[in-house]
Amino acid sequence: MLDQRPLPRLLVLASTYPRWAGDHEPGFVHELSKRLASDFKVTVLCPHAPGTSTSENLDGVEVVRYRYAPRALETLVNDGGIVTNLRLHRWKILLVPGFVLAQAWAAWRLIRCTRIDVIHAHWLVPQGLVATLLKAITGTPYLVTSHGADLYALRAPPFQALKRLVARHAAAITVVSTSMRERILSLGVDTSKVNVQPMGVDMAQRFTPVPSMKRSERKILFVGRLVEKKGLVHLLSAMPRVLQRIPDARLAIAGFGPGEAEAQALVESLGLQPAVHFLGAVPQTQLPDLYRSAAVFVAPFVRAVSGDEEGLGLVLVEAIACGCPVLAGNVPALGEVLGQENMDVTVDPRDHDRLADHIVASLMQPECARARAEQLRQSLGRRLDWASVTTAYAQTLRHLAGKA
């Protein structure tokens, strides 16, 4: 007899979330949510943004967007993320109380109208704080996932106290890399409820190699938000040294964000206009072909002045999944992603001479670079494909919901 029991109900709390199908904003929370829809009745509560609807069904996920300010001022999240937007526009701190209270109010109304079995809060602050309030009021257990910026940045004592509060009351905590586990344990968290569970990449259908597609011999590719921790200024600073040795090398930049003006100014000051092409915000559907056609993908990750750094580096995983040779900044999180190849494909991006040397070596020895890329692809496929990642999250959430 078929099991007729209703699916448990999962409420996902998020800040960064696709505003519409094909949006260029990071989509990993949605990618996980839509895959969990086979095990749960999933509702995502995320902030409204200009041009979005207040409710819709997106890939089988019920998406509810709450209003937190007049429409023209709903700019706290997009085009850089909350931490970056607050650093660049100090006045936006005035939006934070309304942002948090509006999400808490909307979430409470959802719980009141619909039985919710478990909450998945993405980011310790502010979503984890909202989940903590909801647990105090309704008793609903929650899993909180830290993605990096929430853990590494926001280091002032009040924020540290809020993180401890969220971690203490969470039924379970996941971080997306082992290096983050050590950081969150420093908050005094019970080790038994902290697990490393990364986000995934669609390595089965979307991000795959296409052997028939010709790979460029000279195109260098950067993909990511134009913010400090992505390290684009260091890649641009290394480009004159690359061009001295490989004059026909070209850099394509796919991304958007508050650092674009600085990057454009640096290109002009270094006289790089003929060699650097800004592609702007590229839809997710177009990214695979960019990875498949590049000679090398460079992700020059660094630790930002705020302390923020990459928690996992999904764009790097996407490039590897497409068989693209890669070079990355040597931030701690990449050690477990790259494994034995870590030393060969990471460098301190602030050393522009060494960064240029590694880029030139990859361009001049393409067969070696591609062989290394294939080794990485085979290794990652067993750990970071969405199928295995979703299974791990579903097991954790079912346990918390009492449905295991």
Automatic annotation (TrEMBL):
Stretches assigned to the Glycosyl transferase family domain: 216-371
InterPro entries hit by this protein: Glyco_trans_1 (IPR001296), Glyco_trans_4-like_N (IPR028098), Glycosyltransferase_grp1 (IPR050194)
Gene source species: Stenotrophomonas koreensis
Protein name (Swiss-Prot/TrEMBL): Glycosyltransferase
A GO molecular-function annotation: hexosyltransferase activity
All residue ranges annotated as the Glycosyltransferase subfamily 4-like N-terminal domain in the record: 29-204
Source superkingdom: Bacteria
Xref: PANTHER family: SULFOQUINOVOSYL TRANSFERASE SQD2
SUPFAM superfamilies attached to this UniProt entry: UDP-Glycosyltransferase/glycogen phosphorylase (SSF53756)
